[in-house]
Amino acid sequence: MGTPGEGLGRCSHALIRGVPESLASGEDAGAGLPALDLAKAQREHGVLGGKLRQRLGLQLLELPPEESLPLGPLLGDTAVIQGDTALITRPWSPARRPEVDGVRKALQDLGLRIVEIGDENATLDGTDVLFTGREFFVGLSKWTNHRGAEIVADTFRDFAVSTVPVSGPSHLRGLCGMGGPRTVVAGSSEAAQKAVRMTQLLTVSFFVLGCLVCPLSSCTVEALQKLSDVTLVPVSCSELEKAGAGLSSLCLVLSTRPHS
């Protein structure tokens, strides 16, 4: 789980989208997804929004749920944002591509420079992109291909862009993310450790999203507390995780300020 930069301290806004009833059925959300407890999923999502606003001090921008977009709450896949530039992604699944429309409009309203992907051969999910504050890593996964990574490099030319092979069913930011300046945090799975070795960055064996973390054991919390400039804010997304929604996919965090 990751952040758009070196942590949330520099950021001012977060964008989320509500949980639609269509996500609860499982069938409409996508093949192989289990049915969800809708009330629990919506409650967890509401708590996440509250933590972003009240504990992290971010201005929360909420898009309404759309029944035609059961995976719409996974906003992290729809854009890659750095500074005042937003690259609108091209999700691997054609059924998910309409999700970018509402996000594009919201980011335009915030005054960001919008970059589109015009190449039909490119696929790119935003949660396959990890920005360290100095460079980008793009996971080459089931959802993101080489052409998608090339477009990230073309869009953000002031930064180095490297690719990282991602094995298994995860996106790159489902395996590792930023725990602070120059610090990557990662899961203990073989896929996560392999991805982190490819980045050649400092790692520890836990997940974090800026200041937000999932419910953790006491030993994990103790280890994370040793990281500099990290405040732990526990957040549960256990129901939404059944639809593949980790913390890094449930919001877009940005540092721009809207026009008055």
Descriptive overview:
The protein is α/β, with parallel strands linked by helices and 260 residues long. It has five helices and 14 strands. A three-stranded mixed beta sheet has the order 2-1-14, sandwiched between helices. It is globular.
**Spatial sequence of strands, sheet with the most strands:** 2-1-14
End-to-end CA span = 32 Å
The number of helical runs is 5
Q: Report the sheet-strand fraction.
A: 15-25%
Major sheet attributes: 3 strands, mixed
Task: Report low-confidence residues grouped into runs of 5 or more.
Answer: 1-9, 201-219
Series of secondary-structure elements, N-terminal to C-terminal: EHEEEHEEEHEEEHEEHEE
Average of pLDDT = 80
Q: Tell me the number of strands.
A: 14
Could you give a quick summary of the protein structure above?
By secondary structure, this protein is α/β, with parallel strands linked by helices. It has five helices and 14 strands.
What's the topology here?
Elements: E1 13-17, H1 38-55, E2 59-63, E3 79-82, E4 85-88, H2 99-109, E5 113-115, E6 129-131, E7 135-140, H3 146-155, E8 160-165, E9 176-180, E10 183-186, H4 190-199, E11 203-204, E12 212-213, H5 218-225, E13 233-234, E14 252-254
Parallel strand pairs: 1-2, 4-5, 7-8, 10-11, 12-13
Antiparallel strand pairs: 1-14, 3-4, 6-7, 9-10
